[in-house]
Amino acid sequence: MGIRSLFEFAIFHRPAALASVPLLLLAACAQNPPVANGAVAAVHDDAAPGPLYSLFHRALPAPQGKTAVLRLHAQGAQIFRCETQAAGRRWAYRLPEADLADSAGTVIVRHGVNLSFEHVDGSRLLGEIADHVASPVDNALPWLLINTRSYGKGALAGITQVQRIDTVGGMPPATCDSAQPGQVLRVPFSADFVFYR
Protein backbone atom coordinates (compact mmCIF):
# COMPACT_ATOMS: atom_id res chain seq x y z
CA MET A 1 0.00 0.00 0.00
CA GLY A 2 1.54 3.34 -1.08
CA ILE A 3 1.80 6.52 0.98
CA ARG A 4 -1.31 8.00 -0.68
CA SER A 5 -3.28 4.82 -0.03
CA LEU A 6 -2.19 4.75 3.62
CA PHE A 7 -3.16 8.40 4.01
CA GLU A 8 -6.55 7.83 2.38
CA PHE A 9 -7.12 4.78 4.59
CA ALA A 10 -6.27 6.76 7.73
CA ILE A 11 -8.57 9.60 6.72
CA PHE A 12 -11.55 7.60 5.48
CA HIS A 13 -11.46 4.47 7.66
CA ARG A 14 -10.78 5.54 11.23
CA PRO A 15 -11.91 2.98 13.80
CA ALA A 16 -15.38 3.59 15.22
CA ALA A 17 -13.84 3.41 18.69
CA LEU A 18 -12.36 6.87 18.16
CA ALA A 19 -15.83 8.40 18.40
CA SER A 20 -16.89 8.86 22.01
CA VAL A 21 -20.26 9.34 23.62
CA PRO A 22 -19.31 12.64 25.32
CA LEU A 23 -18.29 14.14 22.01
CA LEU A 24 -21.53 13.01 20.41
CA LEU A 25 -23.43 14.75 23.20
CA LEU A 26 -21.38 17.89 22.63
CA ALA A 27 -22.18 17.69 18.91
CA ALA A 28 -25.85 18.12 19.68
CA CYS A 29 -25.10 21.31 21.63
CA ALA A 30 -22.55 22.86 19.25
CA GLN A 31 -23.33 26.23 17.74
CA ASN A 32 -21.76 27.94 14.73
CA PRO A 33 -20.45 31.52 14.79
CA PRO A 34 -22.83 34.14 13.42
CA VAL A 35 -22.34 35.02 9.76
CA ALA A 36 -23.68 37.65 7.41
CA ASN A 37 -23.77 36.60 3.77
CA GLY A 38 -21.03 34.09 4.49
CA ALA A 39 -18.62 36.69 5.86
CA VAL A 40 -16.77 36.13 9.13
CA ALA A 41 -15.04 38.98 10.91
CA ALA A 42 -12.55 36.63 12.58
CA VAL A 43 -12.32 33.28 14.31
CA HIS A 44 -10.06 33.35 17.36
CA ASP A 45 -9.17 30.67 19.91
CA ASP A 46 -10.54 32.85 22.72
CA ALA A 47 -13.80 33.57 20.90
CA ALA A 48 -14.85 30.15 19.64
CA PRO A 49 -18.64 29.95 19.48
CA GLY A 50 -19.46 26.63 21.14
CA PRO A 51 -17.95 23.79 23.19
CA LEU A 52 -17.45 21.37 20.29
CA TYR A 53 -16.09 24.00 17.92
CA SER A 54 -13.78 25.26 20.65
CA LEU A 55 -12.45 21.78 21.37
CA PHE A 56 -11.63 20.97 17.77
CA HIS A 57 -10.54 24.49 16.88
CA ARG A 58 -7.64 23.92 19.28
CA ALA A 59 -6.93 20.46 17.85
CA LEU A 60 -7.03 21.85 14.30
CA PRO A 61 -5.90 25.42 14.91
CA ALA A 62 -6.67 28.31 12.65
CA PRO A 63 -3.63 29.64 10.79
CA GLN A 64 -1.64 32.03 12.98
CA GLY A 65 -1.66 35.60 11.76
CA LYS A 66 -4.55 34.93 9.37
CA THR A 67 -8.11 36.22 9.43
CA ALA A 68 -11.22 34.20 8.61
CA VAL A 69 -12.94 36.18 5.87
CA LEU A 70 -15.59 33.77 4.63
CA ARG A 71 -17.60 30.88 6.09
CA LEU A 72 -19.79 28.82 3.75
CA HIS A 73 -21.98 25.75 4.18
CA ALA A 74 -21.42 22.85 1.78
CA GLN A 75 -23.87 20.25 0.52
CA GLY A 76 -22.66 17.60 -1.89
CA ALA A 77 -21.10 14.18 -2.25
CA GLN A 78 -17.77 12.46 -1.75
CA ILE A 79 -17.08 10.22 -4.73
CA PHE A 80 -15.37 6.83 -4.43
CA ARG A 81 -14.59 3.97 -6.82
CA CYS A 82 -14.35 0.28 -5.97
CA GLU A 83 -10.73 -0.77 -6.55
CA THR A 84 -8.90 -4.04 -6.05
CA GLN A 85 -5.66 -3.60 -4.11
CA ALA A 86 -3.19 -5.86 -2.33
CA ALA A 87 -5.23 -5.62 0.88
CA GLY A 88 -8.47 -6.44 -0.95
CA ARG A 89 -11.29 -4.48 -2.54
CA ARG A 90 -12.13 -1.12 -1.07
CA TRP A 91 -13.83 2.17 -1.91
CA ALA A 92 -10.97 4.45 -3.00
CA TYR A 93 -11.46 8.19 -2.70
CA ARG A 94 -11.61 10.07 -6.03
CA LEU A 95 -12.97 13.61 -5.50
CA PRO A 96 -15.52 15.81 -3.77
CA GLU A 97 -18.43 17.56 -5.48
CA ALA A 98 -20.22 20.21 -3.45
CA ASP A 99 -21.96 23.57 -3.63
CA LEU A 100 -20.93 26.09 -0.95
CA ALA A 101 -23.61 28.59 0.02
CA ASP A 102 -23.64 31.75 2.11
CA SER A 103 -26.00 32.33 5.04
CA ALA A 104 -28.79 33.37 2.66
CA GLY A 105 -28.53 30.02 0.86
CA THR A 106 -26.98 31.47 -2.30
CA VAL A 107 -24.39 29.15 -3.86
CA ILE A 108 -21.23 31.14 -4.48
CA VAL A 109 -18.45 28.52 -4.55
CA ARG A 110 -18.13 25.13 -6.25
CA HIS A 111 -15.85 22.55 -4.58
CA GLY A 112 -14.31 19.81 -6.72
CA VAL A 113 -11.34 17.81 -7.96
CA ASN A 114 -7.86 18.52 -6.52
CA LEU A 115 -9.52 20.15 -3.50
CA SER A 116 -10.44 23.04 -5.77
CA PHE A 117 -12.78 25.91 -4.94
CA GLU A 118 -14.20 28.11 -7.70
CA HIS A 119 -16.11 31.29 -6.87
CA VAL A 120 -18.86 32.63 -9.12
CA ASP A 121 -16.64 35.69 -9.73
CA GLY A 122 -14.02 33.45 -11.41
CA SER A 123 -11.43 33.42 -8.62
CA ARG A 124 -10.35 29.93 -7.57
CA LEU A 125 -8.19 27.89 -5.23
CA LEU A 126 -6.30 24.62 -5.51
CA GLY A 127 -5.52 22.90 -2.24
CA GLU A 128 -3.67 20.12 -0.49
CA ILE A 129 -4.31 18.66 2.95
CA ALA A 130 -2.03 20.07 5.65
CA ASP A 131 -3.65 18.52 8.73
CA HIS A 132 -6.73 16.61 9.86
CA VAL A 133 -8.56 15.43 12.97
CA ALA A 134 -11.27 12.81 13.30
CA SER A 135 -14.83 14.10 13.32
CA PRO A 136 -16.58 13.89 16.69
CA VAL A 137 -19.59 12.47 14.84
CA ASP A 138 -19.35 8.79 13.94
CA ASN A 139 -19.27 7.94 10.23
CA ALA A 140 -18.53 11.56 9.27
CA LEU A 141 -15.64 12.95 7.25
CA PRO A 142 -12.61 14.18 9.19
CA TRP A 143 -12.08 17.88 9.75
CA LEU A 144 -9.33 19.25 7.50
CA LEU A 145 -6.89 22.12 7.26
CA ILE A 146 -6.15 22.73 3.57
CA ASN A 147 -3.26 24.83 2.23
CA THR A 148 -4.33 26.66 -0.92
CA ARG A 149 -2.95 28.55 -3.88
CA SER A 150 -5.21 31.25 -5.29
CA TYR A 151 -5.72 32.17 -8.95
CA GLY A 152 -7.49 35.14 -10.49
CA LYS A 153 -8.98 38.29 -9.01
CA GLY A 154 -12.02 38.18 -6.77
CA ALA A 155 -13.29 36.95 -3.42
CA LEU A 156 -10.84 34.03 -3.20
CA ALA A 157 -7.73 36.04 -4.14
CA GLY A 158 -5.13 35.82 -1.39
CA ILE A 159 -6.83 32.94 0.46
CA THR A 160 -4.02 30.73 1.78
CA GLN A 161 -5.83 28.18 3.95
CA VAL A 162 -9.28 26.64 4.32
CA GLN A 163 -10.74 24.63 7.20
CA ARG A 164 -13.39 21.95 6.66
CA ILE A 165 -15.29 21.52 9.91
CA ASP A 166 -18.69 20.41 11.29
CA THR A 167 -18.87 17.49 8.86
CA VAL A 168 -21.87 15.18 8.53
CA GLY A 169 -21.79 11.99 6.43
CA GLY A 170 -19.46 11.41 3.48
CA MET A 171 -17.88 8.13 4.62
CA PRO A 172 -18.01 5.01 2.39
CA PRO A 173 -18.37 1.41 3.55
CA ALA A 174 -15.01 -0.10 4.53
CA THR A 175 -15.00 -2.56 1.64
CA CYS A 176 -16.69 -3.30 -1.66
CA ASP A 177 -17.44 -6.76 -3.06
CA SER A 178 -16.54 -8.84 -6.11
CA ALA A 179 -19.56 -7.58 -8.07
CA GLN A 180 -18.52 -3.92 -7.68
CA PRO A 181 -15.03 -3.39 -9.19
CA GLY A 182 -14.96 -0.12 -11.08
CA GLN A 183 -18.32 1.00 -9.72
CA VAL A 184 -18.62 4.58 -8.50
CA LEU A 185 -20.21 5.43 -5.16
CA ARG A 186 -21.49 8.90 -4.24
CA VAL A 187 -21.83 9.45 -0.49
CA PRO A 188 -23.79 12.58 0.55
CA PHE A 189 -22.12 14.95 3.02
CA SER A 190 -22.36 18.42 4.46
CA ALA A 191 -19.72 20.60 6.11
CA ASP A 192 -18.72 24.16 6.84
CA PHE A 193 -15.70 25.69 5.12
CA VAL A 194 -13.83 28.64 6.66
CA PHE A 195 -11.55 30.62 4.33
CA TYR A 196 -8.48 32.44 5.68
CA ARG A 197 -6.49 35.29 4.23
Annotation keywords:
8 strands, 3 helices, 197 residues, mainly beta
Percent range for β-strand residues: 35-45%
- Main-sheet strand order equals 1-2-3-4-5-6-7-8
- Counted by DSSP, the helix tally is 3
- Uncertain runs are 1-9, 14-58
The helix/strand order is: HHHEEEEEEEE
The percentage helix is 10-25%
**What is the domain tally?**
1
Question: What class, by secondary structure content?
Answer: mainly beta
State the separation between the terminal residues, measured CA to CA.
36 Å
> What is the mean predicted local confidence, pLDDT?
78
Which value, in Å, is the CA radius of gyration? Answer: 17 Å
Largest sheet: 8 strands, antiparallel, barrel
Number of strands: 8
Query: What overall geometry do the principal axes of the alpha carbons give?
Result: globular
Any overview of this molecule?
The chain has 197 residues and is mainly beta. The protein has one domain. Helix content is 14%, strand content 42%. The chain has 3 helices and 8 strands; from the N terminus they run αααββββββββ. It has helices at 3-12, 21-29, 51-59, and strands spanning 68-85, 88-101, 107-112, 116-119, 124-133, 143-151, 161-169, 184-196. An 8-stranded antiparallel barrel has the order 1-2-3-4-5-6-7-8. Strand 2 (88-101) and strand 3 form a beta hairpin. Residues 1-9 and 14-58 have low confidence and may be disordered.
